Amino acid sequence: MDAISSRPQDRVVVIGAGIAGLATTLQLAPLPVLLLSAAPLGAEAATGWAQGGIAAALGPDDDPALHAADTLAAAAGLGDPEVTRRVTAAAPGCIAWLTGLGAPFDRSEGGDFALGLEAAHGRRRIIHAGGDGTGAAVLHTLARAVEADPRIVLRHARATALLRDEAGICGVLAWEDGAPVAIPARAVVLATGGVGGLYAHTTNPLGAAGTGLALAARAGAVLRDLEFVQFHPTAMAVGHDPMPLATEALRGEGAMLVTAAGDRVMADHPQGDLAPRDVIARTVFRRVMAGEPVFLDVRPLGDRLQRFAKVTALCREAGLDPARQPIPIRPAAHYHMGGVAVDGRGRSSVPGLWAAGEVAATGLHGANRLASNSLLEALAFAGWIAADISGGEARPPLRPLPLGAARRPAPDAGMVATLRGLMERHVGVVRDGAGLIAAVTALRPLADAAPSALADRALAGLLIATAALRRRESRGAQCRSDRPEADPASAPSFITLADVLEGDAPRTGTARP
């Protein structure tokens, strides 16, 4: 029996051990917290792969209001101004909190933070740790703090369902050591990450396949803006799955996108190689699909390339010397702007369920995420979620929780590959109505089957494809070749499991769950 089993009505369960899960867990103490992780801390978290940094207005020429303006501009008309203001204002405090935990952020010779520049930022405001190793450094810092806190219980188990009663979410059904286990909870926080593993080309861990979306949808939660999947334009095309990432910070320091002949790919865009990600991703995608390889030339960096040890090592593992050869690249699924619709406290539409990090849709990213805002969002909402849960009342006494009757086997590798190929073809960088209809038609029977790991993947894909089909415009990360214009009346989209399986239209507008 773990240290908190005697009072399950006080327990908070956090599902996921990336930056959102670990930061929320730490902020929740001194409440008893059970952290569920399907793998050892950090092993399957996309945070550890993040080469970009954390955006924060810390420079003498910067201000949170300027950071907010850049964020809203990137969000392509669907960003929430109030959420954006709060998150960008919280950024300096988030950096201070991580620094207090021992995060080894890069410093200048004078001891100030070394601030980097990334696409669509108007100022140098990107905080790094170890050059392009920020994610791993932050994840290690948070994991070390979690392991040192005796109030936190870590269990290696995979959540398979959210359990609810008349009052809302009351626990989690999980598989642990090959058997089902029901875990009662006062509150549940989803921090399960994104959806990149649904695609044939991705920079994410392959386990990041929309599990949290499926859990929330089956529990009745409202989901938001699922059509907006960000494709990073410079994934390294070196034959690896998932694909290594060539961080955007390289272009911030002078790297260029070029053809095999050395011509500048982004020469006609006013922001050049620092244009928004969705613009560059579509430009590169169309060239690659036309049979014209595209490369990232980092040779202009000279000695500055030494600051990007991770990219350099990845290149050399693939037999490339980036100091002498351009890096072959292509777009790959990287970040999901959509997710479980939450309010300013991280609350979902279902009582007892909160969501943090990539699985949540807070309104910060809108239709297109500004670089290095994702880790920031996770840190800011971790504190707000913890404060909201801590200030609430303990749950009423829990009834005995049901166990699942059937084992949930790992999905067949062949079926997973088929699903990934389908998502890549029809719900990828450039979409059209016919392809999206084909995806919905193929995914619906798989998603509507008995709950299983494959059904959850199919459900996540179906939700994304349905939202993309029903947004009849091109905006931000959603590019529809059959509807290339933006709709001036566009609004955030909201959708539920019932909308998808019963064929109802999704709700649109600015209403919060």
CATH top level label of the domain at 233-331 = Alpha Beta
Distance between the termini: 36 Å
Structural class of the helices, strands and pairings?
Answer: alpha/beta
Sequence of strands across the biggest β-sheet: 6-2-1-10-17
DSSP summary: helix tally: 13
Biggest sheet overview: 5 strands, parallel
Overall residue-averaged pLDDT value:
90
CATH topology of the domain at 233-331: Flavocytochrome C3, Chain A, domain 1
Report Rg: 22 Å
Q: What is the general shape?
A: globular
Task: Give an account of the 3D structure.
The chain has a domain of about 100 residues: Alpha-Beta Complex (Flavocytochrome C3, Chain A, domain 1). It is about 30% helix and about 15% strand. About 55% of the residues are buried.
Provide a brief overview of the structure:
Helices cover 31% and strands 17% of the residues. The protein has 513 residues and is α/β, with parallel strands linked by helices.
